[in-house]
Amino acid sequence: MTSPRPHDLRISGGQVVSSFTGERFAADVLVRSDLISGVLPPGTPADAHEHLDATGLLIAPGFVDAHMHIESSFLTPQTFAALTLARGTTTVLADPHEIVNVAGAAAMRWMIDAGATTAQTQLWGVPSCVPALEGLEHAGASLSADDIDTMLGWPGVIALGEVMDYRAVVGGDPRMRDVVGAARRRGMILDGHCPNLSGADLSAYLATGVDSDHTKNRTEVVLEKARLGMLMMLQEKCLLPEVAQALLALPQLPPFCLVTDDLAADHILAHGHLDHIARVAVRAGFPAEAVLRALTWNPAQRLRLYDRGVVAPGKRADLVLLRGELAAFDPALVLAGGRVVARDAVAVPETAAPTASADASGALTGTVHVEPQDADGFRWHTDLPDGTHRFRALRLNPRDTYTEEDALDLPVRDGEVRWEGRATVVRVRNRYGRAGRVFAPLLGRTLTDGALATTYAHDSHNLVTIGTSRAAMAAAARDVVATGGGVAVAHGDRVVASLPLPVGGVMSPAPAEETVRRSQAVRDALDAWGWDHLNPFMSVSTLTLAVSPSLKITDRSLVDVVRRAPVGPLADGV
């Protein structure tokens, strides 16, 4: 009788955590090639070429992120993979709608090719809304339903990216009907985005086949969506104690996923990736076992990846060995496809991302096309008569990306709104060679003299500048344009921190350490300026996201998101 072929690896001494039952049990895990070849009682005879001592550790499945955007880390796919594999994230479904809004199908092809070189499983959703709100903004690209249909057939693509223009879907817009229809014909996953959509509108949205949501909702809307079978994907801002309590009080806890959506590189290095979201979920009141399931089995099932999500024979050997209590979600060792890729939250050398010189991202540089940025470019011209006028304003809050409509009285003299010394303003300038330039007051922050400029601005990524003086705004904008895109903060008229993002104006080809250092410097400079927010990068970059309630600004106009319509600069009864 022939002896069984030896296994490649035996992991012994640890306790397996079942994402099915929540139990922990002592077992040796055997690996052959990229698959788990056995889960056996400790000491069961089985030859293996290598042995790994997991004494004192919990053996869990690799974490699966069912909704995220690599560009939000400011890193390229290779660098992102190295940073997040080290925190246990072995699989992601990435929606590259940031870079695709800049450079179209060619950008998505580049992202797919770059991701295929990593040890992380990077799967893709085709952006459904390029631009995010057709007719109300100009992006660098525009995808038709036919374009999207073609891209849905590309290798590595498994989903239609988040259907953000939910009002168009509910209203029966022909383009969105065709986009969703193409995805349904191909049997694709349909990813949703519909903050606080409820009642008949929610039913109409679900009836199209879009069946998930990752946005922040009122607690009663979370329950409404869950009871209708919409898969709730909870990111950090959604993980409130009242949401946890409401879901846990149901007769049966519905399946849900934990997702990152948008996390910058410095946040990932300092706090973690999905492991961080897991700890937030535990603090909100979810049991650690339910949290593990929301990181592993639930998202794997959502993505139809039936080969992972549980530590079991025949499944892919994506494993996270955790130290301490499960609730700590503290990765000591990470395996992807049976290979050790990280130890103690640091990627092993062979997993490290390629250097910038080895990165082919140069094809996506040189995408910012605007005039030289000087103080005159931040004069707010108007055809209003002289006098004081009540202007429509965006009001921010310190936790999420919702903006409310407010109003501010400002004087107009000689065809110019005299805002300096009276207000903080935001200016959106089209960066793709078009004429668009729109201003609005910004409320909800107490800022010193200074400015921020960025080309990382959802989803069209035009040049956004926020400031309290024209000189400061010009200084920040000049810095961003000179580096081919990015983020810059000025205190007074001097730039004190900058993050160059020359890859499409949204990503850096630099090593993760440099991007982290610069990201943190920008975050610190924003804080010193007075920009108080749980996620400052997102609070800035979503001012232009015209599908997120309730008042936003694009390169064409202010936009009433609920009515899906442009509105003028003057307030109406606010």
Largest sheet: 10 strands, mixed
Radius of gyration: 24 Å
Beta strand count = 32
Count of DSSP-assigned helices: 15
Structural class given helices, strands, pairing? alpha/beta
The first-to-last residue Cα distance is: 85 Å
Helical proportion? 25-40%
Integer average pLDDT: 95
Catalogue the unreliable spans: none
Instruction: Indicate the overall shape.
Output: globular
Strand content: 25-35%
Strand order of the largest sheet: 20-23-22-21-25-24-27-26-28-29
Can you give a write-up of this model?
The chain has 574 residues and is α/β, with parallel strands linked by helices. The chain is 26% helix and 28% strand. The protein contains 15 helices and 32 strands. The strands form 6 sheets. A 10-stranded mixed beta sheet has the order 20-23-22-21-25-24-27-26-28-29. α3 runs parallel beside α5. The longest helix has 19 residues. The relative contact order is 0.13. The model has no long low-confidence stretch (mean pLDDT 95).
Question: Can you give me a brief rundown of this structure?
Answer:
By secondary structure, the chain is of the alpha/beta class. It has 15 helices and 32 strands. Helix 7 runs parallel beside helix 8 and helix 9 (265-271) crosses helix 14 (512-529).
